[in-house]
Amino acid sequence: MPIQTKEELRQVVQETVNTTPISDIHTHLFTEDFGSILLWGIDELLTYHYLVAETFRFHPELSYDAFWAMSKTEQADLIWQTLFLDHTPYSEACRGVLTVLNRLGLDVESRDLASYREYFKKLTTGEYIDKVFELSGVTNVCMTNDPFADAERAVWEKGTEADPRFHTALRIDPLLNQWETTWARLKEWGYEVEQELTETTLKSIRSFLKDWIERMNPLYMAVSLPPTFAYPEASVRGRLIDECILPVAREAGIPFAMMIGVRKKVNPALGDAGDSVGKSDVSAVENICAQNPDNKFLCTILSRDDQHELTVAARKFRNLHVFGCWWFLNNPSIIEEMTRMRFELLGASVTPQHSDCRVLDQLLYKWDHSRIIIAKVLYDKYSDVMDTGWKITREEIARDCADLFGGSFWKFLGKPDPNASSGAEKKY
Ligand code: RAT
Ligand code: ZN
C-alpha cells in the first residue's frame, strides 16, 4: 500500500533511515586482534585530532611541545576543560563526544569526566566492540590497513584472526606519495627494487602489492592524494599508478580508491591535526576513469569547491563510485548540501557517507548525526516526487536506504552485501 500523506512519509523515512543496517566503507578502526591500534574510550575520544586542533585555538600560550609531552590523560583533561567547560561544545567534533556519552547512557548533564572514565575502565575491548556495533546500527566497517605502519605490519606478519564485522582496505600512501624514501623499505623487505623505476623494480612493486592483497584480501586499494594530483602524468606517481596500481587492481578485481585534496602537514607541529585542504582538478578523475574503463574507482574529494564537478564526473563514468563527506566536510551544513546535490544528480548510485572513525566510540555519533540529515534530504526528495502524483511504498524506501547505506557500494564492488539477507529491523 503506497504512502498516502506527507506526515506518513516523514515517519516512514525517519524510521527506515534509523533502522537500515549500515556498511561503513571507510574507517580507521581495527579488530580486537590489533590490540592498542584500535582506539576506544573517553580519553581517545577527547584527544581526537579534530579536537586537538580546536583546543590550540584557545591557548596561544601553550607550546606544541608542551602539549605533546603531556600524558594522554593530561591532554584529555586540558581538552575537556577548554572545549567543554570554558566554552560551549557546539562544534561538530565536540557535539560528537556528547552524543557518544548520551548514547552510552552516561549522565551528560553531570559534566563529570571522572565518572565517564570509570565507566570505560569496567569494559573489555571485546565487550565494547560488541556494544558499539549493537548500538550504532553499523554491522560492518572497512578498516584502513597500512603495510607501511610498523605496528600494524607486525600484526599482519604474526597472523590475525578475521572478524566478519571488519573488512580490509590496502592503503598505500607512502608508495605513491614518497617513493623517494619508500623504495628503500621495499628493498629492506626483500623486494628487488631501486629508486629508478626499472622494469625489475616495477615488477617487484607489483609483487609487493599482490602479496599484501593476498594477505589482507582488501575490498579496495586506497591512497590520499594532494590537490595537485594529475592524470595522466609523467611523474613517478603517474608511472606507479599506470604500471603497478591499475594492472594489479584490475587483476584482483578491486577498485582503486582516490581520496583527493589533502595538503599534508601545513602545520606539522599539530601532528595528525596539521593537514589541510586544497582545491583539486577533477579532470584527473575523469581522465583516469576514461582511460582505464576496465578498472573501478572509488573517489572522495576534500574541497567543498570540487563536489559539484566530482558528482558530474560520476554521471559520465559508471566505473566511478563517489563516497562520503570527508574530514573537514563532515559537518552538518556541508553534509546537507552535498547530500542534496548528490541525490539530485545521482539518485541512489552513491554512498553518501562514511564515518572515518578513528575511535570506535565515534561510530555512535558520526552515524547518528548523518542519519538525521540523510533522512531530511530524502524526505524532501520523496515529497517532491509525491507532488507529481507518483506513489511511493515503504518497500521502495527500504530498498533505497539499503542502497545508500552500503548496498550501492557492494553492487559496485560486485560482492554480496552482508546486510542484504539480515532482514534486520531494529531501531538505532
Ligand atoms: O579524517 C581523518 O581522520 C584524517 O586524518 C585522515 O585519516 C583521512 O581520513 C585519511 O584517511 O587520510
Ligand atoms: Zn580516513
What does this structure look like?
This protein has 428 residues and is of the alpha/beta class. It has one domain (6-38, 138-413): Metal-dependent hydrolases (TIM Barrel, Alpha-Beta Barrel). Helix content is 51%, strand content 8%. The chain contains 18 helices and ten strands. Strand 2 (138-142), helix 9 and strand 3 form a beta-alpha-beta unit. Helix 1 packs antiparallel against helix 17 (363-386), helix 8 runs parallel beside helix 17 (363-386) and helix 12 (199-216) crosses helix 13. The longest helix has 24 residues, at 363-386.
Distance between the termini: 25 Å
Structural category? alpha/beta
Order of helices and strands: HEHHHHHHHEHEEHHHEHEEEHEHEHHH
Q: Write down the domain tally.
A: 1
CATH architecture: Alpha-Beta Barrel
If strands are numbered along the chain, what order do they take across the biggest sheet? 4-5-6-9-10
Topology-level CATH name: TIM Barrel
Number of H- or I-type helical stretches: 18
Q: How much helix, percentage-wise, in residues?
A: 40-55%
Strand content: 5-15%
Which whole number gives the mean pLDDT? Answer: 97
Stretches where pLDDT falls below 50 for ≥5 residues?
none
